[in-house]
Amino acid sequence: MNVMVVGAGPTGLTAAVELARRGVDVRIVDKRTEGSGFSRAVGILPKSLELLEASGASARLLDEGVRIDSAHIFQGKQEMLTVHLRPHGEDRDFILALAQDRTESILRDCLLKNGVAVEWARELTDVRQVSDCVEAVFADGATETCDYLVGADGIHSRVREAVGVDYRGIDLPETWSIADVDANGWPYDRSFVAFRLGHGKMAVVVPLEATRYRVVSNTENALAALPIKMNVTKIHREGVFKISVRQVDRYNVGAVYLAGDAAHCHSPVGGRGMNLGIDDAAEFARRFVDGSLDGYSASRHARGRHVIKASEGVRKFVMSQSGVSAILFRVLTAAAGRLPALQRGFRNAVLYD
Ligand SMILES: Cc1cc2nc3c(=O)[nH]c(=O)nc-3n(C[C@H](O)[C@H](O)[C@H](O)COP(=O)(O)OP(=O)(O)OC[C@H]3O[C@@H](n4cnc5c(N)ncnc54)[C@H](O)[C@@H]3O)c2cc1C
């Protein structure tokens, strides 16, 4: 039985690595001509590191990434709460910050070690299920067959469209902005910093490397939104983006399976998207090998729904303009500063939920 994975983002690469290392005959195709130099996701959660351990990817990710071991929550310029993610130096209790293009590059290396290379410049245009196989049709006119096909081709998934699965949800109206910058003297070089700015606005700063930071905000200019001055020495990129909150209601049609952004998308609040895709892909590979693919769709749908609900809950709370939520924010952060149990709950939600 062979598998064709469509899309060499973090989800597709994880699926291919996890299948290849277990001896499955797997191919992976992508419409790009080479790996993306554009980084969206930054935070790798402990569960993803655990899933990628057997392939050897985690050791390399850990070598390169920055361990984020605390979170600082601000209301405007005023720090309300510091949460230590590893108060006792625990082994895995941190978020690993690494630019997504580096994560993908490490996964491609692991795949090559298992004898599989990404087939670039292969744009899939259609998928057909015939009696005993799946036909993948490419932009160059080629039709190739496989036993199973995994659509890990991102938010605008052609695989999803081809098999007729709805992507239900909403497109949020507001514009978000992002900036990757070098900066001197930023005091939170191993910390996640979140600013609640009032009027439903927020900004987040995450370290990417020793003196490089990612700034994201639900305003049109992430750097201008920061209430604390950042001494920026170089802007690597700046841009704006929109967010959708969507999920498919089934993760497979016959032998065609969906994973990652092809199956779900939500706001970057909580840094869950890539991690959820890695989790989908690892579960697909495990179930493929142990013959339990029947349970994939229900299991991944439930997990996806839970993550979207949690991420949307936090986004709505932080962005709420109501006076009640402003008071609740102050009360909760003040209480969490004093109550170890609340801090533990917050830590577990950030790292493991
Ligand atoms: C600003 C921002 C910040 C984020 N931060 C985080 C974070 O900190 N943590 C986190 O977990 N997530 C984060 N995310 C979400 C994360 O980036 C995505 O969830 C993740 O990239 C999804 O991976 P994927 O492999 O499913 O899809 P993608 O990364 O989109 O990869 C899809 C691949 O499929 C290929 N492809 C598409 N169509 C075809 C076709 N027809 N034929 C062949 N190939 C095709 C594409 O070229 C691409 O390589 C963030 C997102 C944004 C926008």
Provide the descriptors you would attach to this structure in a database record:
353 residues; alpha+beta; FAD/NAD(P)-binding domain; 2 domains; 5-stranded mixed beta sheet; 10 helices; 21 strands; 32% strand; binds flavin-adenine dinucleotide
Structure description:
This is FAD-dependent monooxygenase. Keywords: FAD, Flavoprotein, Monooxygenase, Oxidoreductase. Its cofactor is FAD. InterPro entries: FAD-bd, FAD/NAD-bd_sf, RIFMO-like. It holds the Pfam family FAD_binding_3. The chain has 353 residues and is an alpha+beta fold. It folds into two domains: 2-42 and 99-171 and 245-316, FAD/NAD(P)-binding domain, CATH 3.50.50; 67-95 and 173-242 and 323-353, 2-Layer Sandwich (D-Amino Acid Oxidase, Chain A, domain 2), CATH 3.30.9.10. 33% of the residues lie in helices and 32% in strands. The chain contains ten helices and 21 strands. It has helices at 10-20, 46-51, 57-64, 100-113, 158-162, 222-225, 273-290, 296-319, 323-338, 340-351, and strands spanning 2-6, 25-29, 43-44, 66-68, 70-75, 78-84, 95-97, 124-130, 133-138, 143-146, 148-151, 167-171, 176-184, 191-198, 201-209, 212-217, 231-241, 244-248, 252-253, 256-258, 264-265. The strands form five sheets. Strands 6-5-14-15-16-13-17 form a seven-stranded mixed β-sheet. Strands 2-1-11-20-19 form a five-stranded mixed β-sheet. Strands 3-7-4 form a three-stranded antiparallel β-sheet. Strand 9 (133-138) and strand 10 form a beta hairpin. Helix 1 (10-20) packs parallel to helix 4, helix 1 (10-20) packs parallel to helix 7 and helix 7 runs antiparallel to helix 8 (296-319). The two termini are 34 Å apart. The mean pLDDT is 92. Bound molecules: flavin-adenine dinucleotide. Flavin-adenine dinucleotide binds next to helix 1 and helix 7.
